[in-house]
Design goal:
183 residues, Rossmann fold, seven-stranded mixed sheet, alpha/beta
Length: 183
């Protein structure tokens, strides 16, 4: 299984958690970590190159810090540019059908903040619903998201444990879809 990590962090050098997660993934065989903000500092996305990269992998991971209940702006721009009609969805748009899609996020708030009645009022799966809908549209298997919560208070040891858990989960071929595309 070939894995592509689309890493979208606007200031990765300042990130303890996403930098650590990416570093752990880069040490694995058959894993490509694609740093969007490094590749596209001018935000001029090479759609054909990105589509070829996606086609060459079996599992696609979107890794980013979760803030303002969404992804960093370059990832949204990338999704809009790359997942085109006739390629990713619509008439003959089947290039990603059957691939896995995993969302890997970090949050500043603790896990309990993402619950009914918690600080954010909603669960992470509820807040990530647009990514699930995208997965359904493009025919990928939407895997249960991976999250590292409460990163502002996390110790280095906790981050190391999270990075190892991330790799184990992301590389496990038995990681099953939470929802099948189209259902």
């Amino acid at each position: 299984m070939k894995i592509l990590v689309i890493l979208a962090h606007p200031s990765l050098a300042d990130s303890r958690v996403n930098r650590r997660l990416a570093s752990e993934m880069e040490q694995q065989e058959n894993v490509t970590v694609h740093r969007l903000y490094d590749v596209y500092p001018d935000e001029q996305i090479n759609v054909a190159a990105e589509q070829q990269l996606l086609e060459a992998h079996d599992r696609i991971i979107l890794q980013f810090p979760f803030y303002w209940y969404s992804s960093p702006p370059l990832l949204k721009k990338w999704l809009d540019a790359v997942l085109t009609h006739g390629w990713a969805y619509g008439n003959q748009g089947d290039k990603l059908h059957g691939k896995d899609l995993l969302i890997a996020i970090s949050t500043g708030g603790p896990e309990k903040a993402y619950a009914p009645g918690g600080y954010n009022q909603y669960t992470l799966p509820e807040l990530l619903r647009p990514f699930q809908a995208t997965s359904n549209l493009i025919g990928t298997h939407y895997l249960t998201p991976f999250s590292v919560n409460g990163v502002y208070q996390a110790t280095d040891e906790q981050l190391d444990q999270s990075a190892k858990a991330y790799v184990a989960y992301a590389l496990d071929p038995e990681t099953s879809p939470r929802f099948k595309a189209g259902k």
